[in-house]
């Protein structure tokens, strides 16, 4: 009678992590203790997108009690260097600006104090002066010969321009009867994790070394970049991560520049320094996905079979090209044909710099930017030919008998049966029923559409894919780079317990649970006997440059290498037990906590006893084994080779498959999308934990829904950041996320130890374009860009049929163009004094100082030129500002025009207005005004939703005080954003001016 063992892999066992996370015992970076004497840092950031730093006055801040130091870029210039980019370009990408700022939110100074509150106060007291330059935010405009150049050493904003050719695209275009193209402007978005960035750094002067604790996600190739920027060898930089991280979705690889910044600051002040990012900082200056302008052209026959693709991609990486960028552009290079058997491809890839936050890796990086134009193209082909999009997609799929399949651009797809997945999704997702629902809705005059999307989900990135940005000659000179090395260590303690350590930092994926499942199955022990540690210490733990948690590599690579390490350790234990039991190792079975004969369960030993042998009785261990205490395995798959001389690159190891279908209805009046049904089919190879796979799919879908319908990191034409709060950068909540039908087929990967593939990013790639295809179907559109906001869809739904306004009603004003932050308004106020008295008051500096809210004094430089210092606080934004106001076109005591500027640590503003004073017939004055103004910096980022109320309060306060000084009640005032000081106060009150 043989031994049967209950296995854990493939079952939805209870998550090990949840007991701590759900009861408040998670250990995040801000929860961990710090060394005595640790100081706290706050960062002063640029309010301008492009400007020279004229001067930074830190004396007042430095004199504040509790402030230990104020550090500027010049202070760090000699002990740090730039963060080396992935391309050869003269980019001095430092962690803090020295002479020039290139995006809103770029660090310009650091205040170090006893606590964070004092440090923030110190930032408010710093006076930075700038000479503003013209900014460029559109990547296509940045290519123009007369565009402002961000880095003179580069000579232009174009840092890379590569062309690729595979097959014979010219002939394919010439011989195909049909062709069309789509142009897509994919917007910026981000991951918005619950926990923001955090760094705690210490410098040891005795051996010139740094100890940095950061919630850094990896990839750990950036360890070398950080060490270089700190001017120390790699073994002088100890990088540690906390046990828990409150989400990342890729963005926490962007902690790296702050690790440099805080570590170098700790060196200067001679004490440990801690910095925890706030939400305003995170949205404006952490990291975002790239925005990309793509023109994709295809040629095809009368049945929709595509023979060739021509990609023209312009990638906006923001102000600096920070490693590992342009990873987002090249990660999908091997997958540019998606799930389709297309053998001819032409590509042009351009990497462009603009005055926006530097980009980085965001969940699904590269996938959404590729599949949006590709799957829009497939629907447009079907629309042009009058065919069913389902038939066109199916007709172009790679045949099931072609796997492993080499794409035209070099990817090696490991396994799959795409036709089967499509057919099962259509059947179980009831596609025919959706078509009937669409027909019925349209018959009733409702807007209903169906979207379809097929996508290949790459996972386990080949770190050499980024070198495709270099020419073959440049790669040959630099040396080949390739692979995806993963690391795991399995340790046995003296009582036979098992500890697992992997070089992958989780952000909620369930590492501890899945690794315990895998190792427990190999060793035949209960999961509770396995403990997994999830923090990483580069000074003590096994890791490699490819380590980290990115590109959905956990199940395929990390869990796979843990399986290999456990298997090697099990084989050693089998030989130890075999020697004691006088049996052959191959006759032993590990099950139910014992190591026993496969045929005679009575002939066996407890696992713990055998596992402890190397500790307690090393003399019983066969000499050729050495010991069975710790097993470390490094694994890299041979399929991940370097790009070849023809630029063919297998950019990822595993390739899952996704087919999504959905039905959506659009409200004709509001433009709101209602998702009637969403079905997502996944082939992620072998499923290790069904419950967590479902969680990854649902989480990816929720994030993708936000990217499709709500989210955009918006910028004004001058580079001002406009999405600084969750009132302006909208995220979907539980009430907006519909239920899903999740379907699976399994085609285990032959390239991974467990047959698993990635699944964590797929819906971020497929869902945005699936929803867009449904919207385009509902509205009959050939082109549509994200986000699919209600206002955009309502306008598209109305089209030329928008009815005229009712009699007596003005036509609605056209919507402001995206990025227009201009605040325009007019109003009235009543003052109980004659115009002559009010006029004199408006020109009296001492009186103005007493009535301007938050004023610290007004200086009269001339009869028509005033300067003032004010403290301003609206909502979450508070700070101290300098205002400069000039009056001209004066017609005393009737009218005056004002212009002015306001600058401070949190932002800047400018505008103009016209004030008119008229007698009211009762001895008083009716004050009317009209104005235009806009602001930038953190104030702009907070958003326009606080603007109106803030303006009313501030301007109301100004006129009420003015009226009191004039000797009468304030009477009526309607709000203002008023002028005179209105440009000084309201400008900054407008706290955001995002339209």
Automatic annotation (TrEMBL):
GO terms for molecular function: iron ion binding; oxidoreductase activity. Keywords: Molybdenum, Oxidoreductase. Residues 797-811 have a biased composition (Low complexity). InterPro entries: Ald_Oxase/Xan_DH_a/b, Ald_Oxase/Xan_DH_a/b_sf, Ald_Oxase/xanthine_DH-like, AldOxase/xan_DH_MoCoBD1, AldOxase/xan_DH_MoCoBD2, AldOxase/xan_DH_Mopterin-bd_sf, CO_DH_gsu, START-like_dom_sf. Residues 797-823 are annotated as: Disordered. Residues 23-134 form the Aldehyde oxidase/xanthine dehydrogenase a/b hammerhead domain. The keyword Metal-binding does not apply. This is Molybdopterin-dependent oxidoreductase. It comes from Methylobacterium soli.
